[in-house]
Amino acid sequence: MPKLIANALLFQLGWFACVFGGDGPWLLLVAVALGVHLFWVSSWQAEGKLLLTVFFAGSALDSFLLNLGVFDFGEPRLLIPLWLASLWLLLASTLNHCLAWTAQPWWRASLLGAVSAPLSYYGGAQLAGVGLPYGTWQTLLLLAAIWAVVMPLLHGFARLYRSQYEQRLRSQQSL
Predict the structure, then answer these.
(1) Rounded to an integer, what distance in angstroms lies between the CA atom of residue 60 and that of residue 65?
(2) Cα–Cα distance for residue pair 40/146, rounded to 1 Å
(3) For the segment 21-80, what is each residue's pLDDT rounded down to a tens digit?
(4) Phi, psi (5° rounding) for residue 130?
(5) How confident is the model at residue 160 (pLDDT cuts 50, 70, 90)?
(6) Cα distance between the two ends of the chain
(7) Hey, which bits of the chain come out as E strands?
(8) 134-152, pLDDT tens digit by residue?
(9) Ubl conjugation as a keyword (predicted)?
(10) For 71, left (φ over 0), alpha (ψ -120 to 50), or beta?
């Protein structure tokens, strides 16, 4: 239980560092949070693939939404800022831990994604000064629909990589 609480607190610390600090030195807190996660809560061997997959897939998704005009960072850009991409790393670190309870049945992940992700984007946009050119409600409804699909998919990646890791461990122990 202490590791689950630490995992949730590390995510929250990183979220605030990203949203309030932008691409500045506050991102070092994200590195510290991920370092503590990988040292105490889990390990790179167990979750490295998951962290990278979610980081790249999530950054691509948000960059796609940016290019569709869903987000406005106040300057022309093709890719999301590093602080927003870092949030995907933080989210990945929770999938096998404090958010594991949402993996089964699949609708829990879908419901969590549809409700909490738009609220997180909205809060982050308000605090970080990100514009929502399509309008608040339209954007939140779009994000809810997207995240109702995304969250179960992320849990699918977590399950796949976890089973691969456990299989490697079993094969090493049988040697």
Answers:
(1) 9
(2) 32
(3) 999 999 999 999 999 999 999 999 999 999 999 999 999 999 999 999 999 999 999 999
(4) -90, 130
(5) very high
(6) 32
(7) none
(8) 999 999 999 999 999 999 9
(9) no
(10) beta
State the Cα–Cα distance between residues 12 and 85, nearest whole angstrom: 15
Place of tokens 């390990």: 43
Length of the chain: 175
For residue 102, give the DSSP letter.
Answer: G
* Separation of alpha carbons 53 and 168, rounded Å: 19
Q: Helix, strand or coil for residue 110? A: helix
Q: Do 100 and 122 touch, CB atoms closer than 8 A?
A: no
Q: In the numeric block, which tokens belong to residue 97?
A: 């831990």
Check whether 175 has a pLDDT greater than 80: no
Q: How far apart are CA 107 and CA 113, in angstroms?
A: 10
Determine the Cα–Cα distance for residues 164 and 156; give it in Å rounded to an integer: 12
> What is the residue-averaged pLDDT of the chain?
96
pTM score, two decimals? 0.95
Residue type, 45: Q
